[in-house]
C-alpha cells in the first residue's frame, strides 16, 4: 500500500476521498470539526509537494438528489480556515463545472466537489459514475476511513481506474492504531462497550472475548442483560429477542476467563427528557414507569477502578444518554478515567468513533487520549475481522 509520505504529488491532481460528514446546526455552523481537522496533514502534504487537491465527500443522507441542507458549500468557510487558503467549489461532482474547475486547477490549489450522494450511483458503487469521478484527477488518495466499510463509487470502486492509489494519513493512523489494539495490546486490556443495542455490538464483543482481560458493558444494552437475568428494568430500552444471546455472551466470557463488569446501580428517569424526575436505584430494581438513562455513582466507582488498572483501553459507545446534560455524568466520568489512565499510568487508549468520540470531544478530552477514531462502523467492522472495501481498494 502506497502512503502519503512515500509519494511525491508535484504536478499531480490528487482526487482525495475525505470524510466531511460533519454535524451542522440549523444555521449550518459545524458543531464538531474533528473530521475536518483530521484531514489537514494529508491535504497540506499534497499542496506543499506542488500538487493540487480535489476533495470528494458525502454529507448526511440526501434522498435521491440535491438538497440545500446537505450541500458541502456550507463547509467552505471552515475549510478555508483549516487549510489557510481559499478553497474553490464545484456545484456538482461530475458535471461540467467539476470538469472545468478540475482542469484549470493550479499547483497548491484546493477544489471541493459537491456532495457525492446527490447521485444515487455513489452508494450503489456504480462503475460508470466512479469512472467519471476518476477522470478529474491522476492519483487517488483515500483518507476516508469512516466510510471504508462501504463499497461505494468514491470509497472503493474508483480505485480500479488509477495506477497510483495512496493511503492518506487518517487512513494510515486508523489502521495502525487498530492493529496496536488487536495485535500488540499490553495487559491488562479492557474494552468498554456502551450504546443502545447488543445487536450492534455482538460481533465485536465475541471477537474481543478472545483478546481482552476485562469487558465493561454500559449504556442502553445493559438493560437487555439485566432483564435476561431476571431483573426489573421498568420501561428501559430492551431488545426482547436478544435476551438468550446476552446470557450466551456472559457464559462465553466466563469460559474464556474474561471478567465482565456491568452496572450495579442506574440513574433513572420518569420520562425521556433532560428535565425528567430522577432517582438512583440498584440494577434490576427499576420501578414500572421509570427508565435507566445513565449509570449510577457506585457503577462509576467500579468502572473507574477497572479502567485505572488497565494498560490498554478500547472504548466504543456511551454509558447513558449523554446528549442530556443530566444524564451525561457516567459517560464523562469514564472519559476522565480513560484520560487519567493514559496520562498518569501510561495506558494506550483508543476511542472507537461515533458517539464515544463525540462525547470525548465534547468533554474536551479528545487530545488527551492516545487516539480518537473518526470511523465508528468502519473501526468495528475492521476489528471484527472483516475486509474493508476502501482499504482493499488501496492494495
UniProtKB/TrEMBL annotation:
UniProt entry tagged with the keyword Membrane: no
Catalytic activities: (2R)-3-phosphoglycerate + ATP = (2R)-3-phospho-glyceroyl phosphate + ADP
Molecular function terms from GO: ADP binding; ATP binding; phosphoglycerate kinase activity
Binding site for substrate: 19-21, 35, 58-61, 117, 150
Enzyme class: transferase
Name of this chain's protein: Phosphoglycerate kinase
SUPFAM superfamilies, per the entry: Phosphoglycerate kinase (SSF53748)
Metabolic or biological pathway, per its Swiss-Prot or TrEMBL entry: Carbohydrate degradation; glycolysis; pyruvate from D-glyceraldehyde 3-phosphate: step 2/5
Key words of the record: ATP-binding, Cytoplasm, Glycolysis, Kinase, Nucleotide-binding, Transferase
Amino acid at each position: 500500500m502506497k502512503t502519503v509520505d512515500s509519494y511525491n504529488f508535484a504536478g499531480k491532481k490528487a482526487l482525495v476521498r475525505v470524510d466531511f460528514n460533519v454535524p451542522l446546526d440549523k444555521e449550518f455552523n459545524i458543531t464538531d470539526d474533528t473530521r475536518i481537522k483530521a484531514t489537514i496533514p494529508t491535504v497540506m502534504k499534497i499542496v506543499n509537494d506542488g500538487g493540487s487537491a480535489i476533495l470528494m465527500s458525502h454529507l448526511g443522507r440526501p434522498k435521491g438528489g440535491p438538497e440545500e441542507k446537505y450541500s458541502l458549500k456550507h463547509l467552505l468557510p471552515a475549510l478555508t480556515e483549516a487549510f489557510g487558503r481559499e478553497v474553490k467549489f464545484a456545484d456538482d461532482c461530475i458535471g461540467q463545472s467539476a470538469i472545468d474547475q478540475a482542469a484549470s486547477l493550479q499547483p497548491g490549489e484546493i477544489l471541493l466537489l459537491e456532495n457525492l450522494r446527490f447521485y444515487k450511483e455513489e452508494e450503489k458503487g456504480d462503475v460508470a459514475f466512479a469512472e467519471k469521478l476518476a477522470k478529474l484527477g491522476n492519483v487517488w488518495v483515500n483518507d476516508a476511513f469512516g466510510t471504508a466499510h462501504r463499497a461505494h463509487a468514491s470509497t472503493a470502486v474508483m480505485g480500479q481506474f488509477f495506477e497510483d492509489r495512496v493511503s492518506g494519513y487518517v487512513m494510515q493512523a486508523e489502521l495502525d492504531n487498530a492493529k496496536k489494539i488487536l495485535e500488540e495490546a499490553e495487559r491488562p486490556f479492557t474494552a468498554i462497550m456502551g450504546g443502545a443495542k447488543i445487536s450492534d455490538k455482538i460481533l465485536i464483543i465475541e471477537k474481543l472475548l478472545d483478546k481482552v482481560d476485562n469487558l465493561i458493558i454500559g449504556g442502553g444494552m445493559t438493560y437487555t442483560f439485566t432483564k435476561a437475568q431476571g431483573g426489573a428494568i421498568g420501561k428501559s430500552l430492551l431488545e426482547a429477542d436478544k435476551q438468550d444471546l446476552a446470557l450466551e455472551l456472559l457464559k462465553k466470557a466466563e469460559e474464556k476467563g474474561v471478567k465482565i463488569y456491568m452496572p450495579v446501580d442506574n440513574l433513572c428517569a420518569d420520562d425521556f427528557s433532560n428535565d425528567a424526575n430522577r432517582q438512583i436505584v440498584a440494577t434490576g430494581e427499576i420501578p414500572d414507569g421509570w427508565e435507566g438513562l445513565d449509570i449510577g455513582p457506585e457503577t462509576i466507582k467500579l468502572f473507574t477502578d477497572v479502567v485505572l488498572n488497565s494498560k490498554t483501553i478500547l472504548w466504543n459507545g456511551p454509558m447513558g444518554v449523554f446528549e442530556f446534560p443530566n444524564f451525561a455524568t457516567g459517560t464523562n466520568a469514564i472519559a476522565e478515567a480513560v484520560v487519567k489512565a493514559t496520562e498518569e499510568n501510561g495506558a494506550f487508549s483508543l476511542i472507537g468513533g461515533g458517539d464515544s468520540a463525540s462525547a470525548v470531544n465534547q468533554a474536551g478530552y479528545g487530545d488527551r487520549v492516545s487516539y480518537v477514531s473518526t470511523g465508528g462502523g468502519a473501526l468495528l467492522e475492521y476489528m471484527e475481522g472483516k475486509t474493508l472495501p476502501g482499504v482493499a481498494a488501496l492494495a
